[in-house]
Amino acid sequence: MSVQVATLDVTKDRYYNIVEELLGYAGITINGSRPYDIRVMNPLFFQRVLQEGSLGLGESYMDNWWTCDRLDMFFDRILSAGLEQRRPRRFGDVIYALSAKIFNKQTRKRAWQVGKEHYDLGNDLFEEMLDPYMQNSCGYWADTDQLEQSQSDKLRLICEKLQLKKGMRLLDIGCGWGGLARFAARHYGCPWSALQYRKSSRSWHKTTARVCQ
Description:
disordered N terminus
């Protein structure tokens, strides 16, 4: 069933024109009437997509900047047309799109700074609020209402989806406090390597890793 959503009468600036051209390769129309067409509610959507690519597309959807009746059809067309590798036809538009990325404030250096300010707050704080495996992402609540059990269930589900077996080696990049790696070692007999840049997480690893390696 189609839901009526108020769309924006957007100004067709350069960002709009570039996005319109790229979506055109997939047969998608901005504010069109077909189920796979997108309806835009925020004029900054076009610049954000050019700056951030697929991440900006997904996060702007979560922010209610655009909507679509059939996301499955929309993304099927996006992927089939290979829009991630497409470039505008006009050279000037290519330069304009690149400038959007150049002046994007979400740089690698800034990402490092944000991570430091959010997570290098001392392990005592996180030990008070998280489960024993120090999972800082959502649990799996299918069969429990207890935090510790929900996180263990989540880790077990991940390991089963990976079809882990004894002797396999697990590489966890951006591992947080290494809960998944330690769970896999303890319950599936998998040695592991875990990569993490946060100082507080690394110091916590040193005091806990020896119990499961």
